[in-house]
Amino acid sequence: MATTSDISRGLIIKLENNLYTVVDFGENKTARAGAKIWAKLKGVDNKRTIEKVWNSGETIFPIRVEKKQFQFLYKDESGYNLMNNETFEQINLSAEMIDAPEFLKDSSEVFVFINTETDTPIGAELPDKVDLLITYCEPGLRGDTATRALKAATMETGAKVMVPLFVDSGEKIRVHTKTGEYIERVKS
Fold first, then answer.
1. What is the CA radius of gyration of the chain?
2. What's the CATH number of domain 2-60, 3.10.20.600, 3.30.70.120, 3.40.50.2300, 2.30.30.30?
3. Model confidence, pTM
């Protein structure tokens, strides 16, 4: 059994029949009463954010989660279809379960989190950085590298990313998937 002393960021716990991941936590000590442990929790299966307070030493119920590498195959009306790279088993996930689905392109890698108790997927995330081709943006101006001015660019996946003025259509850029920001141009 785990107790409140085992709480850490990223831990997934079961609380009132829902799964939550620990975003932040801390301890409040007072002179007369026992210590209290607080945690900010984000719902894995319900997308709610809550705060919970426990007495120090109370029992918590962590869930063991495995992170497996999958490959994105295609999107249809039922969701995003992914294939396990080891077993070639295919699964289907809804857009709500995937972190930044707008940056998914054919055969890109995706990390799927699987609840080992029920052997079901509980979420998925892309790598921190992906390389994408710009399909459309306004023409760039030569020498526009001194300012931090940005313009909108449409990627091959349909996502919109703000890029510097010197970037043109047909170029590959690196994008941070967590923030959706331009990082750099990629040499082909």
1. 21
2. 2.30.30.30
3. 0.75
Give pLDDT tens digits along the chain (188 positions).
788 888 988 888 988 888 888 889 998 888 777 889 999 998 887 778 899 999 888 999 998 989 899 999 999 998 999 999 899 999 999 888 888 899 998 889 999 989 888 888 988 889 999 999 999 998 876 666 666 788 899 999 999 999 988 888 999 999 999 899 999 999 86
**SS3 sequence, the chain?**
CEEHHHCCCCCEEEECCEEEEEEEEEEECCCCCCCEEEEEEEECCCCCEEEEEEECCCEECECCEEEEEEEEEEEECCEEEEEECCCCCEEEECHHHEECHHHCCCCCEEEEEEECCCCEEEEEECCCEEEEEEEEECCCCCCCCCCCCEEEEEECCCCEEEEECCCCCCCEEEEECCCCEEEEEECC
